[in-house]
Prior knowledge:
It is built from 18 helices and 19 strands. It has helices spanning about 5-15, 20-25, 50-60, 115-120, 140-145, 155, 190-195, 230-240, 255-260, 285-300, 310-325, 325-330, 350-360, 390-405, 425-430, 430-445, 460-465, 485-500; strands spanning about 20, 40-45, 65-70, 85-90, 95-100, 105-110, 125, 165-170, 175-180, 205-210, 210-215, 215-225, 245-250, 275-280, 305-310, 335-340, 340, 365-370, 375-385. The longest helix is centred in the last third of the chain and has 20 residues, at about 390-405.
Amino acid sequence: xxxxxxxxxxxxxxxxxxxxxxxxxxxxxxxxxxxxxxxxxxxxxxxxxxxxxxxxxxxxxxxxxxxxxxxxxxxxxxxxxxxxxxxxxxxxxxxxxxxxxxxxxxxxxxxxxxxxxxxxxxxxxxxxxxxxxxxxxxxxxxxxxxxxxxxxxxxxxxxxxxxxxxxxxxxxxxxxxxxxxxxxxxxxxxxxxxxxxxxxxxxxxxxxxxxxxxxxxxxxxxxxxxxxxxxxxxxxxxxxxxxxxxxxxxxxxxxxxxxxxxxxxxxxxxxxxxxxxxxxxxxxxxxxxxxxxxxxxxxxxxxxxxxxxxxxxxxxxxxxxxxxxxxxxxxxxxxxxxxxxxxxxxxxxxxxxxxxxxxxxxxxxxxxxxxxxxxxxxxxxxxxxxxxxxxxxxxxxxxxxxxxxxxxxxxxxxxxxxxxxxxxxxxxxxxxxxxxxxxxxxxxxxxxxxxxxxxxxxxxxxxxxxxxxxxxxxxxxxxxxxxxxxxxxxxxxxxxxxxx
Length: 500
């Protein structure tokens, strides 16, 4: 017999608004990091803020864990329902509610696909700047949860720079309307705090986003190098010389070969050790001057050829290759571990070399593609999840890469978020005081920690914060964090899944 609260949800959302068939629940067990899986009890598919609010009131009353989900394209396990419970999918909430071409704003539902907002605004000569590589599939609500970036965030910034307002449903079903942008807002910046909270503060259902005028002129350049080191050095030179493109991307040889063997083939030279892909935007004069300044600079760093796209089609093909790199890697191996770390640009060359060494020592196949402009690396490690020993080596490599980034003064994530993948690594980067503050902020929004439970902040650390008296100025890490990383995360979620 069906539980009364499930019957309530079915009555609220209708027969097509709830999924409970185990065979249909399978896609909701994980996001893009398929190693971390757990089946939810139900999936809800609301269409309106009101339906989300009423559903969360029921789930709050029954004390059921809740995980919000966009398109499931995330790469940190952020949408994995580690405690089972209910997944609230926003996939049916994909309307453009209002588009103001004068004020250059759009009000949209959170399930709208990223690229669809730029398509909707293009007739007004406007666009939405954040452009994750998965922008053909990822949702704007998911982008807000992770504070996503993309190739062009070097010029335009991450998602948080483009969010003007939100409608948020809190864990008890309360609707918090922060959707009216003000010139001089008073009080705390709750919208800014919510962006990047990875689904732990509530569910954003409506978004007010900033649109930008399309650039008058855009040129795309491809510089071809005989070494990856030279491409990294050229990036630093470009910025030092103040020739700042709107996007600076690097692809290594294995990535190039995978792309060129796939449907995303872009005309990258297969023999190149690396390519530097650049977008230059601005007025016609500005772009011409920047292009003229870039070519001799990259040639001085060893570029053997520099191309400029001659047609819009060629430009789109060059970028389709970059954005299709993740999918193209499916030709190399059935599974891909995509790391996401940031280091100062001056440390790019050093970290790339260390990453290559780690993969070689662990006998792993590595392809590297990254947002070079802001030092955001994506080492892609190919593997087969059916090979337990290979999985172990992949996870150990991920931990080592994160440690190296921290030592280099970098960050655990540039745009993919913490999720499950990097949760225990938070103890490597942050002090007890840092984690205690994060715990207190989270509990202000969600006292019972039912929203996306078991994410971002190590649960053990949160529990310890309630009991520990922290010495002022202490930099002690919690417990034996140095011994815990990706491998422990996978064991934990696997064990939990086996107990269903």
